[in-house]
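User: Once you have settled down, look closely at the record that follows, taking as long as you need, and be ready to discuss the fold:
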Amino acid sequence: MLNPNYPEAQPVALSEAEREVLEQIVARHKSPQQMVMRAKIILLAACGASNSKIARKLQISRGTVIAWRRTFNERSLRDIAVADRLKDAPRPGSPPVFEPEQLTHLFGIACEDPAESGRPISHWTARELADEMIKREIVETISPRHISRLLDEANLKPHRIGYWLFSPKEDRFDEKVTEICDLYKTAEPRLLNGERTISCDEMTGIQALERMHPDLPMRPGKIQRREFEYKRHGTQTLIANLDVASGQMISPTIGDTRTEEDFVAHIKKTIESDAEAVKWHFIVDGLNTHKSEGLVRLVAEYEGIPDESLGVKGRSGNLKSMKTRETFLGDEAHKVVFHYTPKHASWMNQVEIWFGILARKLLRRASFSSKASLKERIHSFIDYWNRTMAKPFKWTYGGKVLHA
């Protein structure tokens, strides 16, 4: 028997297509829970269930069931899409406070240098932008919080900065990158013809740090622990050679300094380590000691070029300047050729990868009682590397990020 206090429920009629859409909303995991609940109300109502029964089954109020029966039917008459009939109606509110022209002014100011507005700051903040908008009488009032929202919607971030590096044409970035990448790719086949390709650089300031107290060993549930105090025993410099074709480290030099004389002696020792090599390619960065007078004289000695024909440093000939020395040392006709990484691109030197491995596997966690101990441990690691881990690095960079 019908309760006289409850009016008769509005009937809901669904086509097969409408029913299918509602069932998909219910079944879809990503459907908002409000939409799912409303779809269930309509599906049960279409099956003839009373408002009270639907409310009990879905554990919601009877008023909610009545409201969504009525809303769904009203929107059906206006031919609104099924999913849209289940959405909340747009809430009434005030129209947008700012006109497009005012927003354009805001975004323009945000992209200006604050100095143009007489503000001695490096970048805009929301508070200062709000103040500037009011000062220029673009708006009567606006809060910094609102400014932040508008900037966020426009994807403008005055508080952030990204760095880039300008490369002048005279640096020959593309040319040098291509040259070095080609050296890496052809190192193994050229080795069969007696050409050695060596990635060479210095790792300076390697500290011989001795821990004052022993470490506490690792145990189940506890990592190894280290006491903070240490004693300094000085530093060492490693001049390293990575054989690109094999991944082996050859003829390392470890000492107190990295002077021009140190580097020249290192290169000479490296060349003398393989008397049968027909040509040497050394990949180095643009450090001044890699373009020194001593290096020019060493290469000239191997080429049989008399000293007097080299000119005078700072005045004439091949020795005149860094540029002329680099040109001489990079001459492909020589037996010993130096290839220079572009400015600010020493990361292209493969030995830098090996330096990272050395730091991770030895230097960061070891304790050294003296510089001699540090030197011995580095030599031991190089021997260990050559026996167990050495292999050519797979070089994928080709001048552009997308090539990798």
Summary: The longest strand covers residues 195-211. The CA atoms of residues 248 and 390 lie 5 Å apart. Residues 173-191 form the longest helix (19 residues). The two ends are 78 Å apart (CA to CA).
